[in-house]
Specification:
Layout lengths: L1 H15 L4 E9 L2 H11 L2 E5 L6 E5 L12 H8 L4 E8 L4 E2 L6 E4 L31 H4 L13 H6 L8 E6 L19 E2 L18 H10 L16 E6 L7 H8 L8 E4 L1 E2 L12 H13 L7 E5 L21 E7 L17 E4 L8 E5 L3 E6 L2 H18 L5 H11 L11 E2 L5 E2 L10 H9 L8 E6 L6 E3 L4 E8 L12 E12 L6 E6 L5 E5 L11 E8 L9 E9 L12 E13 L57 E4 L5 E4 L6 E4 L2 E4 L4 E4 L7 E4 L4 E3 L5 E2 L6 E4 L4 E4 L4 E6 L2 E5 L3 E4 L2 E4 L5 E4 L4 E4 L4 E4 L7 E4 L4 E3 L3 E2 L6 E4 L11 E4 L4 E4 L7 E4 L3 E4 L2 E4 L7 E3 L5 E3 L4 E4 L7 E4 L4 E3 L2 E3 L6 E4 L2 E4 L6 E2 L7 E3 L10 E3 L2 E3 L6 E3 L5 E3 L4 E4 L5 E4 ...
Helix pairs in contact: 6-9, 7-8, 9-11, 10-11
Function: Probably involved in the processing of hormone and other protein precursors at sites comprised of pairs of basic amino acid residues.
GO biological process, one term: peptide hormone processing
Pfam family, one: Peptidase_S8
């Protein structure tokens, strides 16, 4: 009956559970544009892409209810009809339950002790590793051992730590209700990138202010990654892992929410921890939705850069309800690692579910079986956290350790390692069995308890498993078999593992999935099992009595891991059981198995080979036969630090692998050590060097220090070592730690003593609090100011007891304000009303009930038994002293302590003997603390005093806290809230004076701030003394630098220089490297003298440039030019007028403004006076007036084309004709004298000058390339559409944001600041792209982010940034900085290093230096020697003072009173010699050399100490230290400078005076290269600052720039940076340079010929080009109204003016210079070499010599040609430019002196002619043999074509220049002309060899007439190593 009732209730609950729909839709569309369009069309809000699921978008419909029981089907159907929509689903609320523990007890961390209540567990078994975290001893699940009671086996987490693995570098994200990131145990590991707030209520995943959160995410995060050794609650399993939290369970959970959470930054997050799922109620069957399923699969296949995200899932806590985790589709997925749980004793917790998908188990605790400790809230600590949420958190931490051991593990590798290493151990389960692959497995615990140590060991050497294959085997088709109550249905599938399909073949199984469809009237009665071919039985489903669903299973997937490693081939048997758990209403309604299929996951080959990991010396067989010869193998004992892998010798450097840690040396050897030495830390068993400031550390980064080097302090917050504690921190001297000041404190001296407050607060005592006005106090609960009680004038809290001072009309009575004194008190204080607030109530004498004043004579009433007489209360009884009358009876004795009393008790005294005082009715020997004795009784001290000697605040004798709990300190009898300046607070609550001159200190010898004129040094104040170039800073008690160049400056104005350093000019109290503008320099006294006020640039003689609006005239500046000159507005110089003009506006004869006498001004010209003709006439040549043409109103002749103005109705054309209609390209302008005005450029039809209707059509041009066509845009003709694209001859607009485009959707460039990406304009480039030139360019390989120049700025994991590229390893002289992921420069002395400092070297760059403690020294320090093998300094034997080796017999010198014997050992001296003597071999004392004070021998180089004013160097006493050495601090000896110094003042690299020859001095350092904006001055060997206009430079002048700062343009030809380009240059926006215009342009917008803006005089501007009206070789000259043509200079092919400096085109043999000259290439030889070559050419063929001469000279020589001429250095790297050089002409001096008639010359010429003809014949013969295969090409021997000069057309028709075979058929083709390999068909004969020997001339470069460059070479040498070989670059016209 009870079962039926339970079933009925479950059915009712199920039927009542309906779906709740939200107003969110998930939609899959083709691309982003479709998503945007659909959102706009249907009124949806596009919420963005769902996680990392491409093409899946989240949409919100604001018109749909946020929660509704009815779906919006109408909207769904409308959207589904869209062709671009591939899938959609309205989101429904999912019910998800946290796998919470059952009960938790929360404790708060005590602020002072930081301890939670601890248990006694393991108190007698302290762990080997100890952390100071309060709960460390209670973490049984981390460091229990086999001999610990109740803990027979653990997970070996501590052992994994000992191997150096702590989770560092691994990122874990907890998907839950968020993580409290401010918790002190999580704060240091919190990773915001692994966190998100998917629920959307708050900005991050912090639990702060989330009222309904149960801190479940924080609890899990604490188990994973709580920080270690920070005195907080607990320690996480991976305590250095990065931890984050996703807040997704604090709102409606939908499929979108789950997918976004599971897909959070998969490239960053390594492990996702999920401890939730469908309800564990025993009835729910549910799995991930379509989006969450995709997110799981996508993460596993693509996350972690393709290695796969790791998803850790809790298997479930539904054991009490007989739930089965196979009905949880999350834990049942192959992509998740399902984790079970066990208690401390290994028993089965009652909450545990069993299923075949569980992979492994971790400790999770349970009731009475071990409690787990973790975090809660913002500072809390929790115990009894248990369940699979705890165990899966443990598992996530262990997996993080394995990923640190091997970050390359894939998601499948992790599962394989878990299967291989998990242990059944002590876990209690009835179903442990061994599968076919030999693994023990259970349905409760999977493959057993996780073993962290085994996992990291396995991971270290793991190789990736074989590829993943999937094989799906279908079951019997149309099975349809019924299942009756109590019956079993079996079905068999015979599998071959898809062996016929290689890509699907699964031979070895990993996961097995069974997909079934079953109908049944009561689903919970079914159980299902699967038997593998190896006989392993997996219970896929057990009975669930609470599952009364009639839905059955629809394609539900069950998964098992129990067959892992088994072979797949054989029979797989599925068995289904129907076992009724309760009576059914319809027993006849049988269940039906519709279909099932088998899906095998695994590999086609063994996933890994079994590796035997035995010691190398352990398996050595001593028997013979067949094996390798092992007789040389070492078989002795190994060092204790060697692992089980054995060794190759007995020492720690001969281990195969190390047991614990190893140190690696520069020669790649390593030594095994038990622990890493000081300054090192253990990383995966390797000892790595800490950051230089760290003394001990947990990693190499600067924020991983544990303790610090001397001079540094550890920051408690950042774990960094710093030289001083910053604002908000104080130095704890005892711990040498910078600790955080209390809240609101800006500066403090301890945690409770503030000295300066943050804004908004003020110092109140030692605390910083919000300031409240008089009559108000600060309420700390809500931090608001509240009014005091009405009795208080000022107060520290609410109520009358909290008053500091009383309000007017109130009195202070025992520290409360009363309106009048109560009985037993009397008022004392001021008499007037204004003094009322100062009145207090004092206690009456003990004999009085009331009184009017002090003493026993001021009583006003008495107690019973007393009578008042004259103000005194007297006993009215007969009893004497020591007695009292009881009820009017006889007198009774008082207590022995009382003199008088009212009763027998010790507290009933009313007066005391003189030795005692009365206190609260008792007579005491002394008043208690807080009271003082006066008048025979105790009175309260002032509330500020702990003890006192009298009344008032000024009589305190000790202090503690006052009544307001404010700490007080004793100072001069007062208890003050804070000690005054120059005093510090002590632990005994006193103020003690600081040391001398100290203004602020934290203790004795711990000064923090000094008085004026003193500075802080090691906690003490030292007198301030500033050096050269410095001045005292009166505000900060420090030295501040004077202005650059100042040698001495004024105290309060460091810019006011009194004198300058060498090389600087003095001007107006300042020092300048170069004299400023409007001054000139006087070198004699290094001063700057100002120019005249109107002059900008001058020297001592004249002005060279004037101020604006002034003009330069004969060296002076004038406002207006004199007659005969005009002001040139461009140059601001007065230039001469044309001779015809008296005054003028320009240089031409048409620029006259006035004329001389006898001439008149006509149209700007000065002409002789003439007769003026009437209208419509003109003056003929003979002076007569003749009629114009009838259409002319005025004219210059009788023809119709000589009109000046037209008659009415006609318009004047540009051809001086009058027409009735203006021609094409012009319009009728009646406003300017009836003229035909030209339309704008490019327009053929216009309405006016601004409105064009039609543009010029494109026409074929005679020149190449053709000019661009004209396009009409907004009434203007343009060559290129602005923000548009052409359609025909009209511009259409681009899309919004586009500047140029190919069509409306194909953007080519974007409007700033938008960027072009895939033809779209975006606001920012996506990841792995960088903005460059307005585009998104892909970064290079392994680059995560890059700069606009595509230089990498951030690299992927395992790569480091070096030179703008990402490299897997850093090169020499660079080290890998893991924090910055960059290669950082080693110190110049290091070849290899692990840090930037001079003491971080692993290997030295100078092989002669010695390595000592990471520093490269010129020699080893005392008591050490240089090891010749390693180059390192090793310690001498303890008996030696100096030595040459490590042994006792290697001593060179000994300590006092010892000497080395003949074996090099130090022996004590037999007798004692005086300090000025030494002992010889016989022990006799002999005098030292006179130079020595003490010595070891007789010579001057045997000194061990020197006399005063002498210095010891290598045993010799010297007057002063030589170069490379410095005098030590005590002035006793010379020590070596740092290797980078040539001379120095100390041993450090920043103490150099002069640097080594190859280094430059920058500040106090010696550097190899100067920093940005500096250059290395080779003269001074110092880094000097570039000119202000330069970004980078080669020198200090303004013309030596090589790059410019932002905002300036680089003019390469002048080496200058300018704000704008000069007229004949244009701005290159890409490179930000000024580039020269084409030679034909005067001004331009680009470098091409058709980009001109204006032309030189005489040239015609046409379609952007400047065309000359003259023929080739001529230039136009303006002559009157027309022009003429004149010849160019002979060196030019084309020019723009006269002379050789106006060329615009050069002959083929010349290069155009920037100055407009055509110059030839220089010879490669100097004059002497040229003469030698002439001699050598005498042996060559005549034709060759002649040709060479012609080609190398380039221009015909005159008879008087000089020996030198300007030429272009063609071998310089000068792209597109001519670098001027000097050419030595090849002119024979004898030829100049005597040209003929000499018999000797005649004979010599004849011999040379014969030899030349012979050489030519050989040459022709060789050429024919070389060209046999190509009969059409005659290839001359000995020349190689290097490239084209690019000067124009065609190939050369001249063969003489190449000395080939001689005929006209010799010509050059575009292919290679010479066989460079030297291979010849048929071999080589002797003649050819001789010919090669004769060809001894050097390589020479020639240029053909077509501009092609050739190299003549020595045949047989091409292809060999030839450092002088030249190569020509076609692109840049430069040799390189």
């Amino acid at each position: 009956m009870a079962g039926l009732c339970a079933a009925w209730v479950a059915t009712l609950l199920h039927l009542c559970h309906g779906r709740i729909f939200t107003n969110d839709w998930a939609i899959k569309v083709a691309d982003r544009d479709d998503a945007r369009r659909i959102a706009e069309k249907y009124g949806l809000t596009n919420m963005g892409q769902i996680g990392h699921l491409e093409n899946y978008y989240s949409f919100r419909h604001n018109d749909t209810a946020t929660r509704s029981a009815v779906a919006n089907r109408i909207l769904s159907e409308r959207i589904a009809k869209e062709t671009k929509v591939q899938w959609l689903e309205q989101q429904a609320v999912l019910k998800r339950a946290k796998r919470n523990s059952r009960a938790s007890h929360i404790y708060s961390i005590d602020i002072k002790t930081k301890h939670t209540p601890a248990t006694s567990l393991h108190a007698s078994h302290p762990p080997a590793l100890y952390f100071n975290d309060p709960q460390w001893n209670n973490l049984w699940y981390i460091h229990c051992s086999g001999d610990s009671g109740g803990c027979p086996c653990d997970m070996h987490i501590e052992e994994a730590w000992s191997r150096g693995y702590t989770g560092k570098g691994v990122v874990v994200s907890v998907l839950d209700d968020g993580v409290e990131r401010e918790h002190p145990d999580l704060k240091s590991n919190y990773d915001p990138l692994a966190s998100d707030d998917v629920n959307g209520k708050y900005r991050d995943s912090s639990l702060k202010e989330v009222g309904n959160a149960d801190n479940h995410g924080t609890k899990c995060a604490g188990i994973v990654a709580a920080a270690a050794n920070n005195s907080q609650c607990t320690v996480g399993v991976s305590f250095q892992a990065s931890i984050g939290g996703v807040r997704m369970l604090d709102g409606d959970v939908t499929d979108i929410v789950e997918a976004q959470s599971l897909g959070l930054r998969p490239e960053h997050v390594d492990i996702y921890l999920a401890v939730w799922g469908p309800e564990d109620d025993g009835a729910t069957l549910e799995g991930p939705g379509p989006l969450a399923s995709l997110a799981l699969k996508s993460g596993a296949l693509t996350g972690r850069q393709g290695k796969g995200s790791v998803f850790v899932w809790a298997s479930g806590n539904g054991g009490r309800r007989s739930d089965h985790c196979s009905c949880d589709g999350y834990a049942n997925s192959i992509y998740t690692i399902s984790i079970s749980s066990t208690g401390q004793g290994g028993g089965r917790p009652d909450y545990l579910e069993e299923c075949s998908s569980t992979l492994a188990t971790a400790y999770g605790g349970g009731e009475g079986d071990g409690s787990m400790i973790t975090l809660v809230g913002s500072r809390g600590c929790i115990r009894d956290h248990s369940g699979t949420s705890a165990s899966s958190s443990m598992a996530a931490g262990v997996i993080a350790l394995a990923l640190e051991a091997n970050p390359m593990l894939t998601w499948r590798d992790v599962q394989h390692i878990i299967v291989k290493t998990s242990q059944a151990a002590h876990l209690s389960a009835p179903d442990w069995h061994t599968n076919g692959a030999g693994y023990k497995v259970s349905h409760l615990y999977g493959f057993g308890l996780l073993d962290a140590e085994s996992m990291v060991k396995e991971a270290e050497g793991w190789r990736e498993v074989s590829p993943h294959h999937v094989c799906e085997e279908e079951g019997p088709v149309h099975l349809n078999r019924p299942i009756g109550p109590g019956s079993v249905v079996r079905s068999v599938v015979k599998s071959r593992g898809c062996s016929a399909s290689p890509l699907k073949h699964v031979a070895y199984v990993e996961h097995v999935v069974v997909r079934v469809t079953i109908t049944h009237s009561r689903r919970g009665d079914l159980s299902i099992s699967l038997t593998s071919p190896s006989g392993t039985v997996s219970r896929l489903l057990s009975n669930r009595p609470l599952d009364v669903s009639m839905e059955g299973f629809r394609s539900w997937e069950f998964m098992t891991t129990h067959c892992w490693g088994e072979e797949s081939a054989g029979e797989w048997t599925l068995a289904l059981h129907d076992v009724p758990t309760a009576p059914r209403a319809d027993m006849g309604n049988l269940g039906m198995v519709k279909e099932w299929s088998l899906v095998l996951h695994g590999t086609s080959e063994p996933p890994y080979s079994m590796r035997h990991e035995k010691a190398r010396s352990a398996d050595m067989s001593t028997g013979g036969g067949g094996g390798d010869d092992l007789t040389d193998e070492y078989s002795g004992p190994c060092d204790p630090e060697c692992s089980d892998d054995g060794c190759e010798g007995p020492g720690p450097t001969q281990c195969v692998t190390c047991l614990r840690f190893f140190l690696k040396f520069k020669n790649s050897t390593r030594s095994c050590v038990s622990s890493c030495p000081t300054g090192f830390w253990g990383d995966r068993r390797r000892c790595k060097r800490c950051f230089p400031a760290c003394r001990s550390c947990t990693g190499s980064r600067s924020n991983q220090c544990v303790t610090c080097q001397p001079g540094y302090h550890l920051s408690e917050e950042t774990q960094m070592c710093t030289t001083s504690c910053g604002d908000g921190y104080y130095l704890d001297h005892d711990a040498n730690t910078c600790r955080k000041c209390s809240e609101n404190c800006l500066k403090c001296t301890s945690s409770s003593i503030c000295t300066e407050c943050k804004p908004g607060t003020s110092l109140q005592g030692n605390r910083c609090q919000t300031s409240c006005g008089l009559g108000f106090y600060l309420d700390n609960q809500d931090n608001t100011c509240r009014p005091c009680h009405k009795a208080c004038a000022t107060c520290a809290g609410g109520g009358a007891e909290a008053c500091d001072q009383c309000a007017q009309g109130f009195l202070m009575e025992e520290w409360r304000c009363v309106s009048s004194c109560t009985a037993g008190f009397y008022a004392v204080g001021g008499g007037g009303p204004e003094e009322t607030a100062k009145k207090t109530c004092r206690r009456c004498d003990a004999s009085c009930v009331t009184c009017a004043g002090p003493g026993g004579e001021s009583c006003t009433s008495c107690s019973s038994g007393h009578s008042l007489r004259e103000g005194a209360c007297l006993l009215s009884t007969v009893c004497g002293d020591g007695e009292y009358q009881h009820d009017r009876g006889p007198c009774q004795l008082c207590d022995q302590t009382c003199l008088k009393c009212t009763g027998p008790g010790s507290q009933e005294c009313i007066s005391c003997a003189s030795s005692r005082v009365l206190d609260e009715g008792g007579c005491v020997e002394a008043c208690p603390p807080g009271r003082y004795g006066s008048g025979g009784r105790c009175h309260l001290c002032d509330h500020t005093c702990a003890t006192c000697v009298d009344a008032g605040a000024a009589n305190c004798s000790s202090c503690d806290t006052d009544k307001f709990r404010m700490e007080r300190y004793l100072h001069e009898g007062r208890c003050v809230e804070t000690c005054p300046d120059s005093f510090y607070h002590t632990d005994t609550k006193t103020c003690q004076p600081c040391s001398h001159h100290c203004r602020l200190c934290g203790g004795p010898g711990r000064c923090l701030a000094c008085n004026s004129s003193y500075y802080l040094s090691d906690g003490a104040c030292v007198k301030q003394e500033c050096g050269e170039g410095e001045v005292e800073d009166p505000d900060y008690d420090d030295c501040m630098a004077c202005e650059e160049g100042c040698k001495k400056c004024v105290l309060y104005n460091p810019r006011h220089c009194l004198s300058c350093t060498e090389g600087f000019y003095n001007f107006q109290d300042g020092c300048y490297k170069y004299c400023p503008a409007k001054t000139y320099s006087v070198e004699e006294d290094m001063t700057c003298v100002p120019c005249d006020q109107s002059c900008v640039s001058c020297d001592e003689h004249q002005c060279y440039w004037c101020e604006t609006d002034l003009f330069l005239s004969e060296g002076t500046c004038v406002t207006a030019c004199a007659d005969g000159a005009y002001a040139d507005d461009d140059t601001h110089v007065c230039e001469e007028c044309h001779p015809d003009c008296l005054t003028c506006a320009g240089p031409e004869d048409s620029d006259c403004l006035s004329c001389a006498a006898g001439k008149r001004l006509a149209e700007g010209r000065c002409a002789a006076d003439q007769v003026v003709c009437p209208s419509k006439t003109f003056q003929s040549d003979n002076g007569d007036c003749k009629e114009c043409h009838p259409v002319c109103e005025s004219c210059s002749g009788k023809e119709k084309n000589q009109c000046k103005t037209c008659v009415k109705g006609r318009f004047l054309t540009a051809q001086q004709t009058c027409v009735t209609k203006c021609p094409a390209g012009s319009f009728e302008d009646a406003t300017h004298g009836a003229r035909c005005q030209a339309c704008a450029q490019g327009c053929v039809q216009c309405e006016d000058a601004q409105r064009c209707v039609r543009c010029q059509p494109a026409r074929k041009a005679a020149v190449a390339p053709p000019p661009p066509p004209w396009l009409l845009q907004d009434g203007t003709c343009v060559h290129q559409c602005d923000r548009g694209y052409p359609v025909g001859q009209v511009c259409h607009s681009c899309a919004e944001g586009c500047v140029s485009c190919g069509n409306s959707t194909h953007c080519l460039s974007c409007l700033q600041p938008l960027l072009l990406h895939q033809h779209q304009c975006v606001s920012a480039c996506p990841a792995t792209y960088a903005a460059a030139g307005g585009r998104c360019e892909r970064c290079s390989a392994a680059c995560r982010h890059c700069s606009p120049s595509r230089q990498c700025t951030d690299c992927e994991e395992y790569h480091f940034l070096h030179g703008g590229q990402c490299v897997p390893e850093c090169p020499e002289r660079w080290y890998e900085d893991a924090a910055q992921r960059a290669c950082l420069s080693c110190h110049p002395t290091c070849l290899f290093c692990d840090g930037p400092g001079s003491n971080d070297c692993d290997t030295c760059s100078d092989p002669d230096t010695a390595l000592h403690n990471g520093a490269c020294l010129s020699g080893c320090p005392g008591h050490s020697y240089r090891d010749a093998l390693t180059g390192e300094c090793e310690e001498c034997d303890a008996s030696c003072l100096t030595c040459i080796g490590p042994h006792p017999g290697s001593c060179v010198s000994c300590r006092d009173r010892q000497r080395p014997d003949e074996h090099g050992r130090c022996r004590p001296l037999a007798n004692r010699c005086s300090p000025h003597q030494y002992s010889d071999r016989d022990g006799q004392c002999l005098p030292c050399h006179k130079y020595c004070h003490q010595c070891s021998g007789p010579g001057p180089d045997h000194c061990s100490s020197c006399h005063k004013k002498h210095l010891l160097l290598n045993g010799t006493c010297m007057d002063e230290c030589p170069a490379g050495y410095y005098e030590d601090d005590r002035g006793h000896k010379c020590d070596a400078c740092h290797p980078v110094c040539l001379s120095c003042t100390g041993k450090h690299s920043h103490e150099c005076v002069r640097c080594q020859a190859h280094l430059f001095r920058h500040g106090k350092d010696c550097v190899e290269t100067c920093p940005a904006s500096h250059y290395g001055d080779v003269g001074s060997r110092a880094c000097e600052r570039c000119a202000a206009a330069c970004g980078e430079c080669l020198g200090g002048g303004e013309g030596e720039c090589v790059s410019c700062p932002p905002g300036l343009l680089y003019l390469r030809s002048q080496g200058r940076c300018r704000l704008s380009c000069p007229l004949d240059h244009h701005r290159d926006p890409l490179h930000l340079t000024c580039e020269p215009c084409h030679a034909s342009c005067k001004t331009c917008t680009g470098k091409e010929a058709h980009t001109c803006d204006s032309c030189h005089d005489g040239y015609v501007f046409s379609e952007g080009a400047c065309e000359s009206p003259c023929g080739s070789g001529q230039y136009p000259v303006v002559q009157g109204s027309g022009h003429g043509c004149e010849d160019c200079h002979s060196s030019c092919l084309a020019c723009r003016g006269p002379g050789q400096a106006n060329c615009i085109k050069c002959p083929p043999l010349a290069i155009l210079t920037a100055g407009g000259r055509c110059l030839p290439c220089c010879h490669l030889q100097g004059p002497e070499e040229a003469e030698e070559e002439e001699g050598e050419e005498g042996g060559e063929g005549e034709g060759e010599g002649e040709g060479a001469s012609q080609m190398s000279v380039g221009f015909p020589r005159g008879p008087s040609q000089e020996q030198q001429q300007d030429c272009c250095n063609c071998s310089a790297e000068s792209p597109g430019e001519c670098i001027l050089g000097t050419d030595f002409a090849s002119v024979n001096e004898e030829e100049e002196e005597e040209s003929g008639g000499s018999l000797a010359i005649f004979i010599t010429s004849g011999v040379l002619l014969v030899l030349g003809l012979g050489g030519m014949a050989l040459f022709v013969r060789h050429s024919r043999s070389k060209t046999a295969a190509q009969p059409d090409i005659v290839i001359p021997r000995g020349y190689e074509k290097l490239g084209s000069g690019g000067y124009g057309g065609g190939h050369s028709n001249s063969s003489a220049a190449f000395g080939g075979g001689g005929g006209s058929s010799s010509r050059f083709q575009e292919s290679q002309l010479v066989d460079l390999g030297g291979k010849r068909p048929g071999g080589r004969d002797d003649d050819e060899d001789e010919d090669d020997e004769d060809d001894e001339d050097e390589d020479i470069v020639y240029m053909g007439q077509d501009g092609t460059v050739y190299r003549k070479f020595r045949y047989g040498h091409v292809g060999e190593e030839n450092e002088d070989e030249l190569e020509y670059d076609d692109e840049s016209y430069a040799f390189r």
